[in-house]
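assembly run, all chains below
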Amino acid sequence: MILINGQPDNRIPVTDRGLQYGDGLFETLAFRHGKLEYLNAHLQRLMRGCERLGIGFADRDKLEVELATVCAQTAEDSVIKIMITRGSGGRGYKAPKEAEPLRIISSHPMPDYPESCQQGITVRLCQHRLGINPGLAGIKHLNRLEQVLARSEWEDDNIREGLMLDINNRLVEGTMTNLFMVHNGQLITPAIDENGIEGVMRAEVIKLAGRLDIPVKETALTLTDLKQADEIFLTNSIIEIWPVTHVLDTDLHWPHGTLTRRLQSELRQAER
Amino acid sequence: MILINGQPDNRIPVTDRGLQYGDGLFETLAFRHGKLEYLNAHLQRLMRGCERLGIGFADRDKLEVELATVCAQTAEDSVIKIMITRGSGGRGYKAPKEAEPLRIISSHPMPDYPESCQQGITVRLCQHRLGINPGLAGIKHLNRLEQVLARSEWEDDNIREGLMLDINNRLVEGTMTNLFMVHNGQLITPAIDENGIEGVMRAEVIKLAGRLDIPVKETALTLTDLKQADEIFLTNSIIEIWPVTHVLDTDLHWPHGTLTRRLQSELRQAER
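ok done. output:
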């Protein structure tokens, strides 16, 4: 089911600035066991993104009603995607003052990942590098060509994710996930200041670690740091936590380690 | 008039990856005196962009027929915009193998710039910086949030353009134009290797300078270089060449100089 500004539809105006310039934001939520998980965190990030881009989106209440409508039509566990664009505007980068933001809510099948992903996955290193762009770092905007190009590098679905370096050799994230490493009992995750997305699950894991008295550091990471890691895992709202046990074509191997197991177990029991 | 895959229409599927990820390219052409100017150069850049993004667009012939159809419906001088997206695909960055690229052609009123722009304009320096992204540099893709944010910094239409620095303080381009400076009879323009768009008019001016035996250098530029310039001008396919005579809130002033005048005059007479 797709709702566009509250109406069932599956097309948008060609004049929409989401299409013309990627002028908008999105969120990807898990709808599981009849619940939209981490709804408030997702909507808060969406509002922060609107603020960063200067999109005057004021319809959070409407959006929540429409999310409920879509979810009511959704029998099974699903992925719910929200997009907010700046709306339609004439040709040219200048946004018209009268632009009315467009809201799109769609439901999608939950990906059929094998249960074994919870015990460990193989990833690869992407050739395509992330750029450096502090002005857009953190937010989940619609300018996602870097991820599209990185994800186009492999076909084999047994390689579950690709890790991305940036042009300064900083290890930033996966194409669709945030990255964590465990080192000497500490949790370390790349800082999201020059590029990367501030994932909702990333924030949840950081909060959870705080409650469990596990120290967390956000900092610049490189491949050398990865080599010294005791455990590695990836996060997003759909997969939650996937341990990484191998990087393809390297001698990098890690166990499905104690701290990752503990976080997975605690996360399963946590309020969402 | 808008043609989408050859049919008059004004809406696209919400599943189109142009909307979902900015996964596509565009061109902006001038239709003047019954002619689509620099058509071959635009289509060649479009094809190079498709190749860079791995979009298997093979319908150049169809596109040319459709452009002729749109232009035949267009009585006055107009701006013709072409968009090519990767087409519709499921949720997720991975592009489906079977994606059929979407072609959109639309006509728009020619902007009503005053004649005085040909003698000189005032520009401003944008706060928003361009990122560094060699993997996407040069091509005219649909990830244009940087330009949207920079263009949102001012309202006064008497300020005709904003110049953009990148995060390393390199002066790269205007929000919708390429930049040239004249220094000691030489033409200097920012290299398009780390960011920026390889403009069709930029290439035409470089070719024209070659024919006129004016030396051209493509290199990294900074604000300091700008201060030493004898003349400055901006280019794009719609405005052609606009001399810059002042940068707002600075003591930077330049004349509508001899070399700029010569290029404007020669360009008016050149084959297009």
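The radius of gyration of chain A is 19 Å.

Helices of chain A lie at 17-21, 39-53, 60-72, 145-151, 200-211, 223-227, 258-269.

not gonna interpret more than that til we talk
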